[in-house]
Design brief:
503 residues; three-stranded antiparallel sheet
Length: 503
Amino acid sequence: MLGRLIETRLPERDRLTVEPSHDHDSTPNPLGVVQLLTAIDLETGHPLRGVPISPRIGQHVFSAHPLVVKQVVESGATPDAKRIQLATFPHATDTAVSLSPSQLLGRHCAILGATGGGKSWTLARLTEEIARLGGKAILFDATGEFRTQTSVAVTHAYLGGRKEGPHDVRRFLSFPYWDLTESDLFVLLRPSPGVQAPKLKEALRSLKIAHLAPALANGGLIRKAGNPRQPFEAACIQQAVALTRPGTFFDIAQLSRQIWEECVYPSGFNAQAANWGGATPNEQSACVTLMSRIESELASPNLECLFSPDGLDPLPGVVEEFLADADQRILRISLEFLSFEHNAREVAANAVGRYLLSLARQGRFLDMPVVVLLDEAHQFLDKSVGDEFTKADLDAFGLIAKEGRKYSLTCVLATQRPRDIPEDVLSQMGMFIVHRLINERDRIVVEKACGDLDASAASFLPTLGQGEAMVVGVSAPMPLPVTVHKPARPPSSRSADFEGLWG
């Protein structure tokens, strides 16, 4: 059996025997409290889940050699060359600890820790190891600190922003607006529920019909006032599938003008009953603010990657290139230039996650498993954006955590706020790398999420140093304190040099 010594003390009667001024030559009898962690099958050398037989009173207790612990942790058939070289033991830095990719990534992984605890270093180390082992991963870099990953195996792309000059070699991407869902567009454009929301919905449908059936369009618009309804309705029935799925093109530059065209009576009078009626001034005046908002947001430089994709590489095409190229190992998608304005960052990242999940459901990752690494995961999980009338849930990465494993799409969530991650998402994590956590609510959430981390083990979390972590999960034989290897290319996450720059 292996256990962790969690407490040592002397009985009160022996306290004075260890005082420096004590003259008597008597031996103290210290007491130790050991938390039993796991047992080892001596025939196979494999660890067992739990402790099947309690030790007898009077059993000898030995200090475990680091190599014994290493053998327990690394038991399995995976050769060393195919293991993730993750860390060393804190008090035996010459003894390395490695885990198989299936152990660490097969059931999703969460990297948790307060600011300055080493969370970004661990994520960078994992990225380097995935590239070394010939795997594929997509890294969502929320702040741009992983731009230091300059290996030839890493492809850098930027969602949002534009080139700063002819010598700028960075690759800027768009996520075209026609790949967004209707609820995404409603969050970005924020129509009011009375008149504006139904008119926006109708205008989106009309512009898609204008592209799918150009014979019905006039100047890129579906003109409705006084025109027959039947050809338009027949086209809607014929194109019903295309109208309901993301990816159907429409010209968003015409959206405000199409909303104006939607402000008509549903039918004409007398002999003109089969036509749309005339304009409705009340509805037109109610939609003026929405039309102004649309024109303003289409011209916003912060939303250029969504609404003005010309000249930018579409992100779905870049992902396809990445999957097809055997030499590309890591695709880093930087979100540092993507604005928080109107929830654009959350909506765009969620749309990319939804796109990856759709590829997984098509079986695209069965021959080459893909890992999604999501930094600052609390920004994109358990969030609802929009107001009470245009509310949309950001659930794409949560769905990847819940069902992606069976499609060979797993995720690594890194966050400094575990309490902001949904409980049902954390419960799907098979492995936890927990750095220093000071907030009590965060520690309680982690205790509930991973059954092997009890209160005595969690009590060590506030005292962990930078780079130190507790590795615990269903694939780990026991909670294991480690010191994560420094990555070859550390992220640029240093604090400001106040002493050097002030004064």
